[in-house]
Structure prediction request, 391 residues.
Amino acid sequence: MNVSALSNSSLQKAVSSQGLLIEVKPFWIKVQTAIPDVITGIKTLYADHTIGTKADTLSDFHIRITRPRNHRRWFRPQALFFLDNQIPFKPLPLAQAFPFFEWGLNWCISQHIHTYLILHAAVIEKNGLAAILPSPPEAGKSTLCAGLVSRGWRLLSDELTLISPETGRITPLPRPVSLKNESIGIIQHFAPRATYGPICQDTNKGNVAHMKPPTDSVLRADETAEPAWIVIPRYHREASTRLEPRSKGLTMMFVVENSFNYSYLGADGFHTAAGLIDKCRCYDFEYSDLEEAVQVFDSLV
Amino acid sequence: MKFRAGSNFLYHAWGREVGVYGLHSGDTHLLDPLGCEILQTLSAEAHTYEELVTYLEKQLSGEELSNIQEYLQKLLQEFERRGLIESVTP
Prediction:
């Protein structure tokens, strides 16, 4: 059974009481909240994700989003994020509760999971081959990712690329794609039939909205992929579309800098990252036009 | 004065680029093949600057030899800055 099979009242009852166990492969997430925006976000953007019904299913993360019990419950209301009953972050405005859940879950995975080498990168797949898009914030990674998965590429992950040290393959983590500021309008125009959450304004990243992961991407989350390309994107308004080979050595250093747990993994991290570079053709990619960007990526396959 | 490598290292090469991981420091570096060879030499045994020059003169030829001392001085300075090697007094 998936989230969409629950009625609004059943979902609200489950999430606001004992919590709802959602399979966000490869993890189980228990979510507890009575905040309407978070419940709506889960209903809309995690619609295709499986819910746990077995009493003995353990969650990897127990996340609770609540309103404070002090005056900030009512006056300039805030939301609190709990992980296993601990508060790792300062409160955020209540209106940002759903993005808070997403950012918090990113943190939970990137800081606590060390069975994979985790990169700050989007990753997409076609014909069994994965293209990894690592980049610092604001470079256009998520915009490009959203555009490509709207044109036939499978979403493996928008934010966290999970690489198995044992096999070197990519494990999918299909979740809502986070869009910011002008990219919201760009992608809504590019993919008008996709499902979007509401625009959340005035976050510390500007305006934020989420695109629901394609159903196919969620249903195929057990299918790992072989990494084939590392493409470092850069969005520039009015830039010509350009794909340029880049050195493997410099790409290795870039990957290291954009990994959450490379240092923690030690020698295993080095071997995993180096093995990834061995497998991949490496490129810099500059773009401003998504249709042209899709054509370039399609030509890689 | 001699130089020696301050750690054990892992190496991984892509053509003329070599990724180097310091097992004690946890730092990752990118070297060229000659720099990598110097580091491996200093990992095996401490050497003076003059011994390294002699070693390189035997490895290189022609045009590569022309700037060898300047190259080695800069390389050793960079290695020390990055914590890859340390100076030892015999």
